[in-house]
Known about the structure:
The chain is α+β, with helices and mostly antiparallel strands. It is built from 3 helices and 12 strands, in the order ααββββββαββββββ. Strands 1, 2, 3, 4, 5, 6, 7, 8, 9, 10, 11 and 12 form a 12-stranded antiparallel β-sheet that branches. The termini are far apart.
Amino acid sequence: MADPNRPVTGYPAPPASNGYPPPPASNGYPAYPYAAQQQQQQHQPSYYYSNPLANQQRATFLRRMFALFIGCVIIIGTIAFIIWLVLRPQVPQFTLQTLTLTNFNVTSNSMISGNWDARFTVRNPNSKITLFYDHVQAAVFYKSESIAETAVPPFVQGKKNETAVRATFASLSAYVDGINSERARGTVEFNLRMVARVRFRAGSWWARRRILRIYCPDLSVRVSANSSAGEMSGGSKHCRVGL
């Protein structure tokens, strides 16, 4: 028989809480797995929720904006086409009537000097459009080398109008190569180029300024080796005109 007065060895058991036994040891696992899982879900980052209705409204808005843009392009293009059909704008016609050379001199080292006098006839072929030449710049070339430049005074050209335009050039000293051999044959070929800023007006309608390019190539001027003056041969020349 055990002695009731003998002391008991070992660790004392923890007291019961509210009359219930203590929970078992965890052994590394949570005592309440459902609560742990719920706590873990609360700490997970929330992801963006896509609203199908908002996406559909956005797509509808983009389609309407694209349709509006296409409609504006079609309307503007239709108006421009109608204006073109009614007005039928055409570029003016430039004809070089005469080209006179005076005080022409070429030194032994191919330095050239002289005065050029060019007279044009400019015709406006449009029956409903008035042309305004705001700025006209002209130049004389020997092959691809620029010899002299000048500015032509601005002018206005009415409908179906023909205007005489004069451009005078002076070159004191410009280097060119190979001109003495042409002069020895009795003719020298020059080129004329013009650049003009032109406005088109039909009634109260104004078009934006356009750059007009005029090119008159292969202008043969008769000038002998012992002469300082000459004139263009072959009669008047039609110049190429483009925008």
